[in-house]
Amino acid sequence: MPGEFFFTTFARMQTDHSLLRKLADENDVKILPAGSVVLNFQAYVKSIPVVLRGHIKVVGEDENGNEFLLYYIRPGESCVMAILGALTGTSSKIKAITIEETEIIFIRPEKAARLVKEHPAWAEYIFKLYQNRFEELLQLVSNVQFKKTDDRIVDLLREKANIFGSRVIDITHQQIADEIGSTREVVTRILKKLEQEDVLRTGRGKIRLL
Prior knowledge:
By secondary structure, this protein is α+β, with helices and mostly antiparallel strands. The chain has helices at residues 4-14, 17-26, 80-88, 109-118, 120-146, 149-164, 173-180, 184-196; strands at residues 28-32, 37-39, 48-53, 56-61, 67-73, 95-98, 102-107, 168-170, 200-203, 206-209. A hairpin with a 5-residue loop joins strand 4 and strand 5 (67-73). Helix 1 runs antiparallel to helix 5 (120-146) and helix 7 packs across helix 8. The longest helix is centred in the middle third of the chain and has 27 residues, at 120-146.
């Protein structure tokens, strides 16, 4: 399951008492409400977020300023783009937003760089995170090129149902369009088709997967 490796690695890091003390004593832990912007486009990364509880969505932006979903950050995971920006001193190419109340530990870049040298479990965590995110982005490119919009909408809804633990999803047609890089008109037409096929039921601001 997504995130399973990271829970295992995080647990292994916690057995290293010196690392546990560093994470607890030298970094901030915050609880942010849904809709909080953790990292914005073109901002310089001041800290690396690691999600302890809740979820964050990471979006990109095309040349016209339209946002599209890249991936979700689950409990036990971090954002590779934030790590890259923090360690190289470059500005962010993505935006990260909480989608529910989320508890996050914020690690300063200089401390994260030092942890890589001092704690093998932290280095392993980052390398595996890069691998998983790269595979997710390859899958995203493949989906955009080869999957029908119908399937991409269903995939998105299923992932959100998994995140929130409910088949009833609070989401609008426009939000779906924004996340898959389509238009509201196209999404509305496809949702009507999927409803006729008994895949889902639509309501005002809600969709129920069958």
